[in-house]
Amino acid sequence: SSSNSTPLILVDGVERSFSQLDPNEVADIAILKDASATAVFGVRGANGVILVTTKRGEAGKTNISFSGSWGMSVPTDFLDFANSYDYATAYNNAQLSDGISPNQLKYSKEAIQAFKDHSQPLLYPDMDWIDYILKDYSLQSQYNMNISGGNETARFFISAGIFKQGGLFETYNADPNENFSYDRYNYRANLDINMSKTTTLSLTSGGRLEVRTEIGGGEDNLFTYLMDSPPMAGAGIVDGKRIVANKEYVGDYARDGLDTFYGRGYTRSYTHVLNFDLQLVQKLDMITSGLSFKIKGSYNGNYNLNKARNGSLPTYQPVKLADGGIGFQKSGDVGNLGYNESNGSGRNWYAEAGLDYAHQFGAHNVTALLLYNQTKNYYPWPYSDIPTGYVGLVGRVTYNYNSRYLLDLNMGYNGSENFAPGKRYGLFPSASVGWVPTAEAFLEDSDFLSYLKVRYSYGIVGNDRSGNRFLYLPGSYDFSLHSGAGMYRGSGYNFGTNINVYQPVAHESSLGNPNVSWETAVKQNIGVDVK
Fold it and tell me: Mind listing the pLDDT tens digit for each residue in 108-125?
């Protein structure tokens, strides 16, 4: 897709993220790319599919497993920044090159010498902010316990895991919570029950609780500010006081390396994710051998709560005293603690029902699938009353002769509410052929080649996420001080009884296109499998 290249990620056959899945819960990961392989997933699989399968119980003795791992997060490398002496010397030289008089340079000879010999580190600091703020390492740990087992009637897999990761920033006793940290608690329970010889009920449930702590404006801003802070902008924490530069001696600076987080509070986010699937498979051998019916329902929900605490601490500027000592001029005070909460949630439902068929007629192997699926996503943040919805009908037939000649025929018929009535449904066919030369007599007894398959696939895939939602609808009118032609300095129009007041204007935000429909692409793949 020209606007979206994210592959479809399915965990146990349902679209959901696996970025924070406990690795101890995963049984298998498969990646599908060509149009024939992804056809059964409809338009959602246009950019490829990542299939993640979680572990399930097997009949036999009960197995109990425990694992633990410990590690460190270590900064790899940072740029080497100039120290105060080199910085000030280069700055003065630049000013001289610009024609500034020597007696008007930013850094005095006294400052240059103090930077060089570090004789007055409070008045003339020389800080390596990266080294001062970052720890050499942070610790992380992971623990997991799972239990699995069962018999021919029922099988189970139960797992619980904990992952903890500390932060890399020194807190300097302002507040131990003012650091980055991440804790994750995973849980899973998968159950399969043979209700009869022909009926199997499967329950898949899992989830996690994440607790994330961030300081300042997030790690990106912190590193930016750390690298932007000059080495003489402050002396760090001295006797519990945050010492910032006195502009009388070393100039004025917007911030030091501690400015964005020290004493400013933190944000703690709680995210709870719950996934639940229920599937029923009924064999229909009484109708014809190899036929089965499957119905599946899935619920995915998440809830996020953010608790932000903010405040401020005083800063101290060093000053020379008459007796030659150094005093401190206090600026600001301990600010009142601020507190703010915000929350959000999302949920989606998925349902599918289909018929599967698999049978062997001598050397002829035939499989077939007819599947209906439907998805509804609710994300009550910006559009609480406008969920996204998809419906799809999938058909697939595969044939192989003696595992030598292979043929796949696929069809997807999908609908999306992003388009106008009459444009919402699209048909997306695909086909693939394959040949296994090692199944032929002339290569059957090859000493150097155990398996060789040549395959070719052709298909048409579609995508409905080609821009904003509901592109067929015209946008609403905005009423604001909109800038545009005929306006004074972009502040609106001046008309009416008071010509000194500029009036807001109404303007159309966008035009609708009733002809917008599926973005389509043709995929062709040629592949060779060799073992």
Answer: 999 999 999 999 999 999
